[in-house]
Every structure is written in C-alpha cells, then in structure tokens.
Amino acid sequence: MTWSIVARDPATDQIGVGVSTCAFAVGARVPHVETGTGAIATQAFVNPFYGLRGIELLRAGADAQSVIDILTQADAGRGQRQVHMLDRAGRLAAYTGADCVPWCGHLIRDTFSVAGNMLAGPEVIEETARVFAAESALPLARRMIVALQAGEAAGGDKRGKQSAAIRIHDQEEYSLFDLRVDDHTDPLGELARLERVAHQRYTHYRKVMPRKGDPSGVTDRAEIERLIAESIAAEKAG
Asked: In the CATH scheme, what is the code of domain 2-186?
C-alpha cells in the first residue's frame, strides 16, 4: 500500500525518508529519522516498533542489516512487514516479508533504497529509483518528491493515493523538513507545493535558529530580518 525512499545525500550529508500511499497520515507512522543515527521506513502492515526500536538499536551502534535481523526475528507478523533503513555509516538494508501484498519488493543502491508493497508493479520502484539517481543535483527534499512523482506516474499504489510525507535531517538534532500531507486528492502535488512554500521564508529562518554551534541562535529581530533577506537573495541568485 506504500512506497518510500530512504536516502543520504553525499553532498550535504542530509538523511531522510520520502513516502507516498493510499492510506491516511503516512507521515505519522512510516518515517523515523535521527541525526547521527540513521533513517528507517517501516511499512506494509506497519509495525511502529520497527521505527522506534530500530532507531534505538542504530543509536547503540548496530548496523542496518543486524537491526533488520533483530526486529524481524522477534516479530511473529514479520511476513507482512516491510522495512528499509540507513545506518550512521551509510549502510543500507531492506526486508520485504513473504506475505506482503503484491506487487512488493525493494531495491538498494549506493546511497539510497526504495521499497514498496501493494503497487501497480515493479516499475513503480524502478522508476522512482531511476529518477532519484538522475536528479542528484536537486536538494534532497525536492529530489525525493520528483522521484516519488515518477513512481506515481508509473502506477503507484494500485488502490490510489491519499497521503505523502518527507522527513529530512541535516547536522542539527531537529528536522530540516518534516512535511506531511495527511489526506489529499493529490498528496505528492501538495507536498511539492509545501516544499516550495518552505523556501519562501522557513528554510532561511531556520539558519538563524538555535543550533549546535550557537545554542541561542539569533534573537535580535532586525538582524534576523536582515539575515533572512540576505539568504533569500543568495538563493535566488544561485
């Protein structure tokens, strides 16, 4: 019922999950991301503990394949689960249960993986992977969206569409993007719109927020507005 991307951008070291489905509020259950730890997408008959416990295991130093082995071996319902993940060293691993609704399967590449179930066919994840690889010059959030849109054009979730989400972290402990479309006739189109809206002010304001190198951030309002205007101008020029 879902397909998703788990990825790391080598140019920025951002990590994250992008996902689309014909089910409600996919962003509330599928993506799990933690800075310096890794990223997980848990789907099919979603087991939230694959995300919660998976992040704990990755944080403790387990590699992606070991985490999947631990999670699935402890789950009597593993045949109906699907999960893929990225660990702190950039290693990827994936699992598709034998009882997931067809079409189901996964692909693993050097810096990303794509997995899906209840899809129109294998071309959904193949096209998603092809476009994601081809659009490496795009920022990670936009790259995920256009790749998922390509998968949708190839057939997507065979039941239709309802929700989509992206969650991306950079070097800060809090998210860079956590965008969710919970119920929409064109969830990926709406997700793309929200990503564009984020660049109007949010992504520029985030640069002056409290961060590791400056835990107080900028608090002078005039200086904040000056820096935001400077950042917007630089983005337009570049």
From this structure: 3.60.20.10
